[in-house]
Amino acid sequence: MSDHNAAVEDVLVSGLNLQSYDREKPGASEPLELRSDNSLVTKELWIFVIPEHLQYNPCKPFEFSYAKTAIYAVATTLIVANLYYCQPLLKAGFNRSCLVKVEMSKSFEVSYEDVSRIPTCVQAGYAVGLFLICPLGDIIRRRQLVLALIFCTTLLTIGLTVTKSVVVFETLSFVIGVANVAPQILIPLVAETAPEDIRAFAFSLVLTGLMFGILLARVVAGIIGEFVAWRVVYYTAIGLQTLVFGGLYFTLPDYPAKETDTLSWRIHWSMAVLAVTEPIAVQVILINLGASACFAYYWVTLTFLLGGSPYNYSTLEIGLFGLIGIAGVAAGPISGRLVDRILPWHSLVLSIFLLLLFQAVQVAAGGIHISAVVISCFGLDFVQQIQTVALATYIFSISKAAISRLNALYMISFYVGQMIGTSVGTSIFIHYGWRASATFGMALYGMQLCAILVRGPNCNRNKWLGYQGGIAFPARSSRMGAERDEEQAQSKECC
């Protein structure tokens, strides 16, 4: 074990250090945040002037603001929606919605099978962006990165509204997916800058915005596409993205880069190192894979369950269940308050037990009585918010200096889990029925419980198994003091 730790330490010291940067490089004799290249920037892309109140001043650090966090949450909602506008316009359905798909196919003069590749292109591009772009938040000034990404997606969306070629549309959709990761820069930024005692709550606000974007995009695009030409959805997206760009231009502070001397490829390599050498990161990745698989499986198979016997609900009636999901998501900030008051480990254990309880309701009676579906739908969505906030808070606790890389690992595992849940859950439902697919969800929650229980909440950072320090709740003041001491120690190492 000592040889393993020494090997990891060698990798970190060689330029991938999570808490400091290479002292031997030029200019590293002073703290990173006090370097002139971080404190004297007054323009963006050497052209646009940064508003004076948003320029970085090491003598007057930016203060955390709930108002700005709310703006970031709204921006996250509107940006992440770009990934999901196409789904209600393309997904196979019934009745009147088919007219929309026929119109899209005819506008490109191709078959439905051809246009049905568009969502895949968007999601594939998003996966690439998560891996390639998100980690750059640790080495690039995040204000410029966020604004540049939004500017690119806005211009590319204009191309979606005018192109007559389905191949061009698919290519643009892929590139938009790659660039549409600005929310994944804002989310760790909020988690990094919020005070310790409200960090999880602040994070939960932006996370709620992200979940609203996923749910509302389908609703808005479906309504617009039902009554007018489908391209109007993308005209609307252009306007919304322009509003977001303007809003963030006048509100997003120019926080300095944390590791200006680290090369891009080393950032990505260090992310891979984190994924296999940090016990907390491995725990979170495993649990997140199962959690996102459960989320995706449930909502995909819910359509099949409600559309068939004994319910036989219409498309509109099935869609109304999305409101129950939105109600659960809206309770997200409550979960942030809970995680702020207890350790993420305890929040995860509590949430997984509750998820098992609500999933048991679905296993027992989901295909028998609609009340079981309503109870499980709201309960699962609400408790999953607690779990999501706790997972992110847990993995972010590894290192503030690597928070963008840690967020990338978190989101990649979420994305992979969704693909697993959608494909496996759908296959089980089709071949074995609703109860078998619900049991699949129970098994996933059981796997998550095993993953969290192998390691206690008070273990040293490099300890893989056991309950060193017990499972007691540490006093809130002592936890905050320990975090401050650790951050001060990291700051001294950088000086």
TrEMBL record:
Keyword Membrane among record annotations: yes
InterPro entries recorded: MFS, MFS_dom, MFS_trans_sf
Organism domain of life: Eukaryota
GO CC, alphabetical: membrane
Transmembrane segments: 70-86, 145-166, 172-191, 198-220, 232-252, 273-299, 311-331, 343-364, 370-396, 408-430, 436-454
Pfam families listed in its UniProt record: MFS_1
Gene3D superfamilies, per the entry: MFS general substrate transporter like domains
Its membrane topology: Multi-pass membrane protein
CDD domains from the UniProt entry: MFS_NepI_like
Subcellular location(s) per record: Membrane
One GO MF term attached to the UniProt entry: transmembrane transporter activity
Alphabetically ordered keywords of this record: Membrane, Transmembrane, Transmembrane helix
Chief place of localization: membrane
Domain Major facilitator superfamily (MFS) profile stretches: 77-460
Name used for this protein in its record: Major facilitator superfamily (MFS) profile domain-containing protein
